[in-house]
Write a structure and sequence with these properties.
11 helices, single chain, globular
């Protein structure tokens, strides 16, 4: 139990390290074009995840509630301060660490492979889905780190916390979690990922990190849905 998460963390670290080395040698024009391509693909991933739900009201309500809580707590501000502090200490002017960290953390931790794979690993020890996800994240880490910089490496810590938590808490979560709750969390994650795409394309500044609590609200809304017509 937990082998799948370890493989995934290593894949992100190795892929991010390779991407950071490659990116340092890329001309600025290529980096700019690659950023645009990443932004477009991020938008499409967000749309794909959003279509996981049959009821768009659930991710909408979850996103609004999550944003209210996130704004009150100041998640975006805290992550930005952390990223800026790390950048001042270790960076030489590369892409903002906080943006790389938040972007890849969401992409690597939101989706059915994360939830279902972690639950299977925790319940049966079968990490086949997480191994598949690790291969995908490895390729994505190379791409994102080559453009966004070494901040992508920090998302390995998020993968460890999120997937590790789901894996070791699987026996407690499995009796209550349903397919509808997973779909709602995935669709809500799609909203956040779409917002990241807008940020990467510099179309609109969306405080995506402040919407992170929405990922908790979405399954709770589904669980409470028998109480009201949603």
């Amino acid at each position: 139990m937990g082998v799948g998460t370890i493989i995934n963390v290593v894949a992100v670290l190795v892929g991010g390290g390779i991407g950071t080395l490659i990116g340092a040698r890329l001309p600025e024009g290529i980096r700019t074009t690659a950023m645009s391509a990443i932004g477009i693909v991020t938008l499409l991933v967000g749309v794909q995840n959003f279509l996981e739900t049959d009821n768009p009201l659930v991710p909408l309500v979850a996103a609004v509630l999550g944003l209210i809580v996130g704004e009150f707590v100041g998640i975006e501000r805290g992550l930005t301060k952390l990223g800026d502090s790390l950048e001042r200490r270790f960076s030489r002017g590369e892409s903002p660490v906080s943006r790389a960290f938040v972007t890849t953390s969401l992409l690597f931790c939101v989706g059915p492979l994360t939830i279902i794979g972690s639950l299977e690993d925790g319940l049966t020890g079968d990490y086949e889905l997480l191994a598949l996800k690790s291969a995908l994240d490895f390729a994505a880490a190379i791409t994102f780190a080559s453009v966004l910089g070494w901040g992508v490496l920090l998302s390995a810590g998020t993968v460890l916390l999120v997937q590790g938590g789901l894996t070791f808490g699987a026996r407690f979560i499995e009796p209550v979690i349903t397919e509808a709750m997973i779909s709602a969390a995935t669709a809500t994650g799609g909203v956040l990922i779409f917002g990241l795409g807008l940020v990467l394309l510099e179309l609109r500044e969306v405080r995506v990190a402040n919407m992170l609590p929405a990922l908790l609200f979405a399954p709770l809304i589904v669980a409470a849905s028998p109480l009201w017509p949603l």
